[in-house]
Amino acid sequence: YIIDRGPDGTPITKTNQVAKCGNSVCPDLAAALVRANVGQRVEVAA
C-alpha cells in the first residue's frame, strides 16, 4: 500500500498515515476470516 501521499501526490504526515490505517484489514486476512465464517455456516446448515 502507498500511504505516504494522497491521490494528488501531496505528502501525508506520519500522524495522518497512522490514523488512516488504524482499522484496515489486509486482503489475505479478510479472505481467511470469510472462509472461516462461511465454513462454519455451511456445517451448521448441513
Secondary structure: elements and pairs:
Blueprint: H1 14-21, H2 27-45
Descriptive notes:
This protein is mostly helical. Helix content is 59%, strand content 0%. The chain contains two helices and no strands. The chain has helices spanning 14-21, 27-45. The mean pLDDT is 81.
What keyword list fits this structure?
46 residues, mainly alpha, 59% helix, elongated
Strand content is: under 5%
Quaternary assembly: single chain
Secondary structure: helix percent = 55-70%
User: What is the mean predicted local confidence, pLDDT?
Assistant: 81
Q: Would you count the extended β strands for me?
A: 0
Distance between the termini: 40 Å
Q: How much is the radius of gyration in Å?
A: 17 Å
Short description:
The protein is mostly helical and 46 residues long. It is built from 2 helices and no strands.
